[in-house]
Each structure stands twice: as structure tokens, then as C-alpha cells.
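Journal club prep — side note

Before the paper discussion, L.F. wants everyone to see what a predicted structure for a comparable chain looks like in C-alpha cell form. Sequence:
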Amino acid sequence: GRYIAGTFPDAKIGLLYQNDDAGKATLSGLKTGLGARTAQIVSELNYSVGDPTIDSQIVQMKLAGADVVFVECTPKFAAQAIKKVGELGWKPQMILPAVSNSVGSVLTPAGLENSVGIVTGAFLKDPGDPRWADDPGMKAWREWMKSYNASADPADIFNVTGYTMAQIMELVLQRAGNDLTRANLMKQAQSFKDVELPMLLPGIRLNTSAEQVTPIRQLQMARFNGKSWELFGDVIGE
């Protein structure tokens, strides 16, 4: 939301979100970031997980004149949206959420040629980005993949997500020691202070408290170049 407001001050905004609590919560956060720019929303549509396609919603957003489109969709529907936009010959600035920015699971099925120029918010190192080729954290992750997840696609960033979430849980268990009560596990999970992990982007740290239990509240914008995500700008967020 902040990125759209600051980069596209005259944008006609289209929003597509999943009609459930998670989708509505993300929509609310986006509007908070947009601030006064919410008045520039020309199309706000949703879909249900049981829908076969979201083609009609994409067509409606195009007809509404949207030129910046935030596709708050899970991977299957995000891929459908990108593909349909390409089929229509439509050229809005598309923005994807972090949950649906996998090159292997989303952009490749949608067509890499359709995905060039799409923007996303990232918090993890992308295995397809050559800048991390010699990064110690990336090297350790690749070795782990070879040993424990060899059949999985190394281009799929969801494998990085699972690895990182498991590391967070490992930290909780280490800090809990022998006291594995629910109360102590919750206490430890809510006591992170500027914790760095090897596959988080530089500058992104875990911070939690009893009042704020979401561990990752920062991201960096990235643009797809046809092969990988290219980071740009500074880390934004709390």
C-alpha cells in the first residue's frame, strides 16, 4: 500500500483478494498503507477457493480501467491472474503478495513472458537470484536441500519459506529448554528481539512481543526480470 501510494500517485487501483479472513486482513492492511489513496480504487473484487477460475474478475478490472493491480491471491489463482492478463494483452502494473511470488510455482506456470515487470514484496533470499550464489546462508540451504529434500524444486521459494519457519521453531524450542509447557513456548515465541536468520534478506529481523506476535513485519520490493526477482529500494516496514 505504501509502495503504490508513493510510486503511483495517480493510479487507478484494482484489488483482487480471497474471500476469507486472511484475504480480508491483507486487504485491510493494504488500505492502511494506501491511506488517502484508497479513493483511487476503481475495482475491488474477491474470489472463493472453490472457484474454477478468476478470469471474469480480471476482465472486470480491465474494464474498470485499473492500471495498478494488486493480486492478493494464493499461488493457483495468482498464476491464473497473470496468465489471463497476458491473454488480454493488458499491461497494468501487477503486484503480488509474498505468498505467491514463487518463480517455480507461480510465474513459470503463468508464463515467464507474462510475468516480466511484476512487482512483489520479499523477505526471503530467492534461490534464483544470482546475487546469492556465494552467500553462506544460501550455500547451507542448498546442502540441506540435497540431503533432506532432494526431490523438491530448488527454484521454488516455498522451500526457503519452510526451512526458515522451521528455524524459527527451532529457536523457540532451544530457548524453552526443558520447560516445554504451552505457557513457556508462547513466552519464547513472543520474545524475539532483532533476530537474524540466514535466509532472511539483509536488514530483515524477527521481532515479537506479547502485543505483536507476527515475527516478520518488514519487506523489500522486488521486480521480476524474466528470470529472477531484482530487489530495489530500502527495507520497509517496522
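L.F.'s comment for the group: Residues 72 and 103 are 16 Å apart (CA to CA). Keep this in mind when we get to the figures.
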